[in-house]
């Protein structure tokens, strides 16, 4: 069984379009994250949600909007896509802070904006 | 300067060699993580530690809190260890990542 799953795995789209990436975890974790890995393979946190509430928003443009319908899902919607949005986006989950907070990563979504 | 610095950036080794990857950090942390990213792109957590040393098979991770330094040892190395190894620290409820070490182990 997949612990953290993301769809789609690959996404190719034109500038200006709006797209969504979905993430689901079946680990019973309360905290979920979105990370961006740029072309130099550097990972950086974008958002963190704990039990459906936003707890971290790391100076990400307003075009990026996370949505957590329940604590097992954290989707990422991106409006008006730009060339610089091309990257690999990873979803992850963990138990809340103060507990064992090892993170479990999804397989990543490679977004290419043309 | 990044809050998490790794060295070396690139490492090529012969199968059987002992390998060490180093990580230094400059912020207060609650835990340090070592992650592995294979060429296919998936990220796997290898270790999470806040003190001392942990061992899993041929991999050993150590941390010195006073010196703000951690090392990942592969003893001995194998071609299937070829991957990017990423050090990350948990501070202020989020992970901050190093730039990664690209390891290539030749047979």
List the helices and strands and how they pair.
The complex is a heterodimer of chains A (114) and B (107).
Chain A: E1 4-7, E2 10-13, E3 19-25, E4 31-37, E5 43-50, E6 53-57, E7 64-70, E8 73-78, E9 87-94, E10 104-105, E11 109-113
Chain B: E1 4-7, E2 10-14, E3 19-25, E4 31-37, E5 43-49, E6 52-56, E7 59-64, E8 69-74, E9 83-91, E10 94-97, E11 101-106
Parallel strand pairs in B: 2-11
Antiparallel strand pairs in B: 1-3, 3-8, 4-5, 4-9, 6-7, 7-8, 9-10, 9-11
Head-to-tail CA distance between termini of chain A: 34 Å
Main beta sheet strand tally, sense and closure of chain B: 6 strands, mixed
Count of beta strands of chain B: 11
Oligomeric status: heterodimer
What tags apply to this protein structure?
heterodimer; A: 114 residues; mainly beta; 7-stranded mixed beta sheet; 4-stranded antiparallel beta sheet; 11 strands; 0% helix; B: 107 residues; 6-stranded mixed beta sheet; 5-stranded antiparallel beta sheet; 62% strand; globular
Structure report:
The complex is a heterodimer of chains A (114) and B (107). By secondary structure, chain A is mainly beta. Chain A is 0% helix and 55% strand. Chain A is built from no helices and eleven strands. In chain A, the strands form two sheets. In chain A, strands 2, 4, 5, 6, 9, 10 and 11 form a seven-stranded mixed beta sheet that branches. Chain A has a four-stranded antiparallel beta sheet with strand order 1-3-8-7, with no helix packed on it. In chain A, a hairpin with a 2-residue loop joins β5 and β6 (53-57). The radius of gyration of chain A is 13 Å and the shape is globular. Chain A starts with a strand and ends with a strand. The model of chain A has no long low-confidence stretch (mean pLDDT 90). Chain B is mainly beta. Helix content of chain B is 0%, strand content 62%. Chain B is built from no helices and eleven strands. Chain B has strands spanning 4-7, 10-14, 19-25, 31-37, 43-49, 52-56, 59-64, 69-74, 83-91, 94-97, 101-106. In chain B, the strands form two sheets. In chain B, strands 2, 4, 5, 9, 10 and 11 form a six-stranded mixed beta sheet that branches. The relative contact order of chain B is 0.35. The chains are: A mainly beta (114), B mainly beta (107). Chains A and B meet through β5 and β10 of A and β4, β5, β9 and β10 of B.
